[in-house]
Amino acid sequence: MTRLVRFSALSSLCAIALVFAVGALFRAQKTDMFQRELRIKVDSQLSLITTQIESDIRLRMTALNGLADSISTDTRNAEPVFDRLAPLIRARHADLLRISVAPQNQATLVSAHNPDEIDSIRQLRLDRFPAMRRAIERARKHAKPSIFGPVRLPSGHTAFEIFVPIYDEAGMPGRLWGVIESAMDADHLLRMARRYDSSDGQQQEAGAQAISVAIRDVSLNNRAQDPFFGHYAIFSDNPVTRVLDLHGGRWEMAATPQGGWAVPPPEAAMIDRLIAVSMAASGAVAFLVSMLVKDRRETRTRLERREREVLSLSQRLDFALSASGIGVWDLDPDTEIQTWDDRMYTLHGRSAQEGVISLQKFRKTLHADDVSPCLIALRQALLQEKDYRMEYRVVLPFGRLRHIRSFGAPHQDAAGRMKLIGISVDITDDVIKAEALRKAHAVAEARNHALAEANSLIEHNAYHDPLTALGNRRKLDRQLAEIAHTAGGLAGTALLHLDLDRFKQINDTHGHAAGDAMLIHTAQVLRQCVTSRDLVARIGGDEFVIVISPAPDRQALTALADEIVERMRQPHQHNGVTCRSGVSIGIALGGPMAQDAAALMINADVALYRAKQNGRNRVEVYTEALQSAVTVGKRMADEIMEGLERNEFVAWYQPQVDARSHRMVGAEVLIRWNHPRQGLLAPAAFLPVAEEIGVVPLIDAVALRRALTDQLHWATHNVTLPRLSVNVSARRLADPDLLDSLKAIDIPAGRMTFELVESIFLDESSQTVSANLEGLKALGIAIEIDDFGTGHTSILGLLRTKPNGLKIDRRLVMPILTEPSARRVLRSIVEIGRALDLTVTAEGVETLELAAMLAELGCTTLQGYVFSRPLPPDAFLQYMLDEKARRQLIVA
User: Fold this and answer.
1) Which residues contact 649 (CB under 8 A, 6 or more apart)?
2) What is the pLDDT of residues 556-584, one digit of tens each?
3) Is residue 891 pLDDT above 70, yes or no?
4) DSSP H helix total and E strand total for the chain
């Protein structure tokens, strides 16, 4: 009994599983069929909506076009024609909220649903907005009505604007007289969509599928905009779509079932209950039949029930196969005749009236290229009794192709005969999509390859100089960072900083093409002098850097730098022009003095600066001594800045006397620094550093300010100097704000002289310098060329600058007592001064004998230790008082 119960329970479970599997398959097929029918319904309703909207618009356009034709026959009588026809059109089409006629786009005749709007519409320009101008232009260009919108009317209605062109003569598009403008009520136009769309609370058509509808304009360069009807989410929910093409507009209409596509079939619950009931019944029946196996009547009943169930399932399966479009076939190996169901005939484009299909008929349906592979596969499946799987193409009428995927397996029927039974399904859409995907993949692969090449080129350009193909600043930084992250860091790394000498002169003299050629030549020289492991980079206009890691000893580095200097001295030919340049090199080594890349670059830059200071075309290595000098220079720079802030710079004065009478006629203002630790410092101790940090103009301004203050103090003692001379640096003279600053401090006219060093290159002065010189003369400030004869001033420069005097450097003055050639040179300078009516001042006069000689040669003013050393303000005041007492100084 236990064995029987176990067998019955197992049978019951098998029956339940089978029923569940078949029921699930049936339910899936039912759901798929329901979805197809649902999409057909939605498409049908959307088609009805689209047709209705298009019909409404075209009817209104036709009516308005008739009005335009009537007016165009006699445009001079447009008003009576409009008054007669416009009300009739509006009466027939109540959704036309207004109609207006606009000659030259100016509304003059208006018929509106609301009479209050007529006055506000009349005399309006219809082309006042860009969108309206474009719509009118389309209507004119194509001689057809044009529509755009929706727009919001002042009355609160939402409407679509229709523009119809009017010509002086019908059929003459080239002679536009005006346009007809009409506002079509959007709510009335879209009433058909609302009739089926219940999402906004509207009652849909009886018996119609409840759908959600959205409409958007895609006419602007085929770009989709937000929908003007319905919700934008409908377009992303796999909707049924249709496109409505109107002149002047292209609308995309989309629809989905109300509630989405995931709506289950109405009979889903019933199917689920039926499956559940069937499973329970099958289990129970199987259990009972097993228990009552000895009873033939119950056995017969059970068998009949199972037969009915099988028949029902077979019918359902057939229905499911029919709904899915899958065709069923079998092939008799003896006769080579196939038996098809109706769907197989449909798939292969043949009629079911043809009856059985032989292999000869079958091969006629196939594409010529697929006949042989398909038949070979069939015969192999029959002979070897193995599964059959094949994809082939069927040639349909008019040459269309259909792709079929067919599966088959050997099966032995009740009579023991072997047959091949299988199914076939249409995979045309899948093949088309797969081919499109393959092409897209190929395009994507090609684009990815091009992108990779472009990225590689971009990366190369990002790290290389386009002119010389050397590395650039970014590559240098990356290389130093990589070296710094190694185990040894920058220790053992050498950096050579190179700067071309006279490169600007090459550019200015021979042009930028020659300059570029020199840069390329330099890059070639540097590459030839280093190994492939070393980095050569161009980091500025004429600046280069070489990174060597690991670096050789200092002697080898110096030898390499000397070789580069020597090779760069050699002339370089460019387009028949000989270009000569040089190079200065600063060398820095990584280690205790440079533990990071920034310090290494700074050290090399300092060494380069020292090389240029020492005469260019040189090599300097950054050493502890140089580091100490840099530290001292930086300390000095900081102390200069602090000294300026604490007013530590003071003015001293050295008298200037008449060469004949030795009476004091003025004084030169000399700057001194009361250093808090080192005491009083002369300019030679701090001016070089001051020039490096660019504060010489500030020191010049301090000297001038101190001199003016001391003059006021001296005036309280009834002492007035005829003239004070103040040194002015080249940078201060090139200051655009110089004149404004001088006007603000009220300098007495005719009593101040600015001494300009000859190295200012007066021959090549800028416009700012020239303007400042003229402005100084206008302020009553005399101009004197200091250190004349030691610099670059030419006679032409003197003629152009027109100074008031020349000051001869002490190096030309001292040897005139012993060297006749020196006297001749000095006499020549005096003669130049006389010829240009300039005063000539000789400085460095240390003996009375020298003073007498200078007076004899023609100098007008003398300055030197023989008369007085530089004095502080109070001592100089006492000197002037004594001089006044002795000589009875005449105040100018």
Assistant:
1) 643, 671, 672, 673, 674, 699, 702, 703, 706
2) 989 999 999 999 888 888 888 888 888 99
3) no
4) 28, 30
Please give the C-alpha separations between residue 868 and each of 90, 667, 711, 850, 879, in angstroms, as whole numbers. 113, 11, 19, 15, 9
Could you say which DSSP state residue 201 is in?
S
d(CA 320, CA 27): 9
User: Is the bond leading into 803 cis (omega within 30 degrees of zero)?
Assistant: no
The tens digit of pLDDT for each residue in 205-237 reads 555 667 888 888 787 665 667 787 888 778 888
For residues 146-162, one letter each, b for 16 or more C-beta atoms within 10 angstroms of the residue's C-beta and e for the rest, the string is bbbbbeebeeebbbbbb
pTM, rounded to two decimals:
0.45
Distance (Å, whole) CA 358 – CA 351: 14
Q: Residue 464 contacts by C-beta under 8 Å, 6 or more apart in sequence?
A: 470, 471, 472, 475
- If you search the block for the tokens 């240098």, which residue do you land on? 476
Which 8-state DSSP code applies to residue 652? E
Backbone angles phi, psi at 694, to 5 degrees: 75, 30
CA 480-482-488 angle, to 5 degrees, is 90
294 has pLDDT over 70: no
Burial label, 33 (beta-carbon count in 10 A; 0-12, 13-18, 19+): middle
In sequence order, what are the residues at sequence separation of 6 or more whose Cβ sits closer than 8 angstroms to the Cβ of residue 844?
809, 810, 811, 813, 814, 863, 864
Rg value, the chain, Cα: 53
Tokens 């007809």 -> residue: 180
Secondary structure of residue 214 in the 3-state scheme: strand
CA-closest candidate to residue 179, choices 207, 229, 144, 223: 144
Q: What three-state secondary structure class fits 674?
A: strand
Q: In this predicted model, what pLDDT tens digit does every residue of 23-71 receive, in sequence order?
A: 788 777 877 787 788 888 888 888 888 888 888 888 888 888 888 888 8
When mean pLDDT is compared over 285-299, 350-364, 873-887, the highest value belongs to: 873-887
Q: Tokens 């100074």 correspond to what residue? A: 803
Nearest partner of 496 among 449, 562, 436, 443, judged by Cα: 562
The answer to whether 453 and 554 have CB atoms below 8 angstroms apart is no
Residue 529: closest CA among 511, 506, 552: 552
Residue 831 CA neighbour count, 13 Å, CB half: 6
Number of Cβ atoms within 10 Å of the Cβ of 653: 26
- Give the count of alpha carbons within 13 A of 885, CB side only: 6
Q: Which of the pair, 287 or 474, is modelled with greater confidence?
A: 474
Beta carbons within 10 angstroms of residue 344's beta carbon: 21
CB 361: neighbour CB atoms within 10 A?
15
Cα distance between residue 598 and residue 480, in whole Å: 9
Walk me through the domains of the chain, giving residue ranges and CATH numbers: 74-189 (3.30.450.350), 325-426 (3.30.450.20), 466-622 (3.30.70.270), 637-659+676-881 (3.20.20.450)
In terms of C-beta distances under 8 Å and separation of at least 24 residues, what long-range contacts does 235-241 make, across chains too? 237/261, 239/214, 240/39, 240/42, 240/43, 240/46, 241/46
